[in-house]
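Incident log entry.

Two folding requests arrived from the same account within the same minute. Monitoring flagged them as a possible duplicate submission, but the sequences differ. Recording both here for audit purposes.

Request one:
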Amino acid sequence: MVIQKWLLFLFLHLHLHVLNIVAQLPDLDFGSCGENGNYTENSTYKNDLNTLLTSLPSKIDDYGFYYDSIGEVSGIMLCRGDVKLDDCRVCVYNAAQKLVQLCPIQKEVLGGYDECLLLYSNNQSIIETPSLSVRYFFSNTANASKPKEFNQELRQLLENLRDRAINGGPFRKYASGNVTDSDFQTIYALVQCTPDLTPRNCFNCLTDAYGYIPQCPCVGNIGGRIIGPRCNFRYEIYRFFADVSLEAPPPTGNDDKTAPTGNDNTAPIVQDNKKARLVIIIIVPTVIVVILTVCISVILMKKRKRKLVDIIQGTLGDDTSDVESLQYDFSIIREATENFSNANKLGQGGFGPVYKGKLQNGQEVAVKRLSADSGQGDLEFKNEVLLVARLQHRNLVRLLGFCLDGTERLLVYEFGPNASLDQFLFDQVKRSQLDWERRSKIIGGIARGIVYLHEDSRLRIIHRDLKAGNVLLDAEMNPKIADFGMARLFTLDETQGNTNRIVGTYGYMAPEYAMQGQFSVKSDVYSFGVLVLEIISGQRNICSRKGDSVEDLLSVAWLNWREETVSNLIDPILRGSSGLVGDIVRYIHIALLCVQENVANRPNMGEVLLMLSSHSLSLPVPHNPQILHFGDVNSTISESSKITDSKSICSSGNQDLITELHPR
């Protein structure tokens, strides 16, 4: 067993270093560089850190945990309780490589992926301290339709899981489960402590973590996560974990409370009867509730989808012959993705993961695997596929086909070899490849793609989740808008709509949409304006908390515009050529026009495209944008529905890297 562990580690180590693909590893889901000092290249700390990180994959125990001090360095690593050992080792190895890349000289670093976390420091107290020391808040920003009832059920579920986890023994302190609230909505949750903690310390750590719920952005929301080096928890309204068989707790000696009398076989019979009655009492009501829930969900789903089906079929007619030509066998997709291996996983969103695949003819594809509870029927799924497949534009990602097999629903897209725009734009090394010529080309391509969706396609399509992560780059760095899973379809004479289900990503959402559920083509215009500011500045438009203050890119852009210091917003990489500054400032001007608070003041995308291409066209003076914060969202607009991809993340560290959960 020891030899197998070392061979696995040796293979991973040599393979990754020989191919030099550290830069191609998945981006961290979270990561931060602490302020506990720096180290130099040839220092003892550097050597000790290399020794620790190199030995990590081989030292992880069978339950995904390891902590140790080597010389000046102390480290803790923990994999989620349902993650397989081999996947855990790969996850930790990837996290170690990316964290060293993220924090090349810092002594204290914390980060990881959904499946694992890693912390190392020059301070041994990180091992000796059993407290929470919360580092990250993650939140799904859609609100529960009945927040009070939702929070009551959530609190009860988390407390029950905590009580189970603390008795997990010396190998794993982990528990997962679910509960159905009064609105027939299932809440899934998991809790976990590092297994070296005592039951009392684990209890205290999780209790402290629960106490942060009212303070973090996740309060009242349908999904949230709090991460610390010693314990963490997460909840969603979809299943995000796998079931695991945990160790049976040691016998207490008090389990058999019925003493035998006379014949020694009497007590077991009495106990069996009690158990049978208990099983009937528990199972029968549960089955009834499940059946009622399914029936109600089916009825609501059919009503909700009927209008979409009518619109699509009214546009495309009954011509569904193209559907068969787009359909792939499940076995072909499974083979192309190597059985959906984690090594081929490109990202994970609320509706399911995305994998890289290679078809038998050598063509590379991206495969989106929708979760089984995505709530989409066969007819609606086929119609959506047929519609999106007919969207043909050089700045839209092309849908190659789909797979519908039992509960499996897969979408097959062309593969973007340069991944998404955010992986270049927000990477300190890769961003240098984006000079102004390329950035302006990307901005123009995105604008042309949106104009096609709004004005030139057979239906008016509002994307509703336009952001850097949903813009893929082909081999020539041409932008291609991706992910139409949240798009809203209009007939050509419709201009706006209203919804109770808010989807998208905070920071990119127009205020009238996030707060009131009102959306139109101007909602995408707002998102485009935010995206342009990100492309020019090289900075994310994220919620950055510093004490009681909140900063974001729109606030900074508007402040610099008012003070006539807008050149401060430009990425330093682009400031080298003074001749380009005027063009860049014009693009900032256009972006500020797009994010104005008054919807009527925003230009449509056709006008935006004209402004971008014509330097002689005079631009109106922009009005101030509305800066949207977490507390601004009106909780009365949300409803009980499947999870949306609205993600907001605020971190508590001063230098934390804040990453969004990957889009659907």
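Request two (distinct sequence, not a duplicate):
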Amino acid sequence: MIYDLDQPGIGSSQATSGNDAHKSSLLDSLLLENLLEEQQCLRTPVAVFSKAHDQDTPAKRFAHLIPLSQPQTDEQYSFEVNLDACTGCKACVTACHSLNGLDDNESWRDMGLLVGTRKKPYLQTVTTACHHCADPACLNGCPVLAYDKDPITGIVRHLDDQCIGCSYCILKCPYDVPKFNLKRGIVRKCDMCQGRLAEGEAPACVQACPNEAIKIKTLKVESIPVFGSILAGAHDSGYTRPATRYISSKPLPDHARAADSARLELDHGHDPLAWMLVLTQMSAGAFIGCATAMWAGVLSPDQAAITSAAALFFGLIGIALSVLHLGQPLKAWRAFMGWKKSWLSREILAFGALPAGGIAIAATWWLSNPEWLRLAVTGTAGAALAAVLCSVMVYVDTRRPFWALPLTAGKFLGTMLVLGAGLCAVTWSWLGHPAVTWAMPATLLFRWSLSIWEMSRYWRALEDEESSWHRSASILHKHLRMHIEVRGILLILTGLVIPVTLAAGASFRWLLPLSLLLTFTSQLIERRYFFTAAAGSKMPGN
């Protein structure tokens, strides 16, 4: 309210100082009365929004933010993010966390940042969540079918009650969308607030954005890109075909990159899986060594049975330890359900043949049938080899550069040969069998060949910035140099010191087990940084 101080009775330019005081007092009184009157009918922003919310229908309220009808048969829902309107306020992150009742350290929507260079400055905030891909990697990789793509809306849903917490979907997703919930022992992720959409309400992130930078759109599935990427720094779209669309009035510059793209961080170690891989590969190698010796006619049935028992023992320990990796270990029996698509299910089925092979070997040995025993050992060796090959594909299928087929196959098959030959050498030395004389040189040959190959690839990737796994090599060099140095010391001990000592006439009985133990330790170290240096792709910032 504006008061005219020159009105008669209130004040004028010729007023005395006493009149000025009276004028000021009267003005304060009128202003206070006006404020008190306004306070009686004051409506907060919440009250104003509440009244508008109650008066409007959902269709009217969010008509410009969500579709008003379900997708057609060749369409699906998708997020559309207007980069020009996104300010990075994180209202969408907070709303998603609050309305979905997430735990303190849990987030289904993240905020990232794209930057330019010093010569070409650029800055753009980016909000990201699940892209509800047309060909979702999480769904294809899940061994228990805990993912479902809604046939009508196209929303990729996670079925919490079916999840066993294996975290394979986290490794498979190239956008780092699924998040493991330690409290519940399962993985969870964004479902586009499908319950709200079904009632005509906008998802939490859409409703909370003050600039309306996020919308839900309907798009044709065939229009989802197969080439390129949805955003600078994101994984190639041909892998999963993400449905999210990022729009801007000005095209993103070619030099734009994620602000955290140069960050070198260690990934989760997955210790139970590291132990499982090394133990099962040693078991497979020992079965192959035993079968080879049987076909060469150098092992008796009793010696073959003992060697197979040693191989089976370590294989079963490895399989048992893998269960410790699960958030819901009591549901592990369901892991075969996704065998049509998931390499993890196929790996589990293949390793499941080891106990059956052990029973067959025991039965044929008890029946004193050498021919059937040889076939049983050979069949078990074949199943174990198939399981190791499935293990290779479990990680190759994630499309991570550090887990590319040549690298992963070389490491896994090399470990199988080194430790398998070493276990055979130890077993035959304790049995006093002469076959140890060719198992020892084989172990030494495999040990040096694998180590030289690994180190040459590592140094080449570290020096070549264009290498696909240069980032992983840099992580190894920055965080895990001590691990590499320890492996070098172990190589000298097992590949030089112990063989020379044995050649000088030392006892095989204890030096061979020591050599096997040190070699096993070296491979276990390698298998742990196989996970921690994997450097999986993700969206900017999350």
